[in-house]
User: Fold this.
Amino acid sequence: MGRLTPGQRTAAAIAAATALNLPFGTLYAFSVVLKPLEALLGIGRAETSFVFALATITLTIGMNLAPRIYRAVPPPLLALACGLCSGAGLFIAAAAEGFAAFALGYGVLFGLGAGVGFILVQQGVNQTVKGSSGLANGYVVSLYPLGAMMGAPLFGWAVEAWGLRALLAGLGVVVLATCALSAALLKVAVIRMHDADAPADDGRDAQWPLFLRLGTVFFLAASAGLMVLSQAAGIVQAYGGATALALGATSFISGAVALARMGGGWLVDHFPVPHVAAGAQLWSLAGALILTFWPGPMVALPALAMIAMGYGFTSGFTAAAIARYWPRNAFGRVASLLYVAWCVAAVGLPVLAGWLFDRTQGYASAVLIAAGVSVLGILVAVGLPARRM
Assistant:
């Protein structure tokens, strides 16, 4: 095979990211297997919630380990290692007879491989994309909600037809296969995780005031968005929605978030970062206010989608902003640190919203808090620089 053109290398890197991230995105569809898992292992909601939280934490740990690994280990080999780690975790989870084994398999090994792989392919895309990279970065971060949107109905069907153990084992096979495909594509793309031709790191990735401001915007948006994503069905039901509407809410909102993530990256290619950042928070605020002033089942779904889309736009523009503010070689390291904010957000407002629901049997207070979070996000976002510093 002849040497690939720059455009072909970019296409191969994006295809590698797609193959690797889509099956890992089913992490967001974990709620579909809650009841079958509880019945299979004889555990309660607290234990299953702990497993999801543990997977979130190890995913973040994997993201932060990735920049320390991908310069020493060839990208194709590392992609295969991610598949082996997460695939083994899913096989352990499928065979688990108790809570501890399931937590080890799904909560630790599956999450760890997913986190390393996510940063690996995101860095790989940024090493090949030339010029405007916002849309490419928005697409890469959209793959997790896309994976959840496609995985949720497939999980429901597979559990009903084959059982939970077969579903987990089958997902393990898929993860191994797609990581192998990703490895082949990364080899074809000739990814070098450190580009000697890129601008030298002149201290930009040590810009802590900028990093903290961008991380704060991301954290605030993720807090409101993850509250919706984690409890969408319950929120719709709390506002009077029928079971069918509530069940469809997860897939609909996940799809809306995926589109918003791509949109957030694309917008940074055409508009200043602070305008996109403030606009994303304003969109989320509008959804929270609509639901506050006009509560009801038919309003709840689009309003919740707006809140979650604010997070989606923010996730997309944040990935694009990293590529704009920091040198290319620093992308993975900066992104992995920023995703710590996502991890903290996942156990912040979502948990508070559940606590408030237990005491009020409603989500009105949580939606008001989400509105306040969005206002604060607007105030922080307008202070972001428009150009690379």
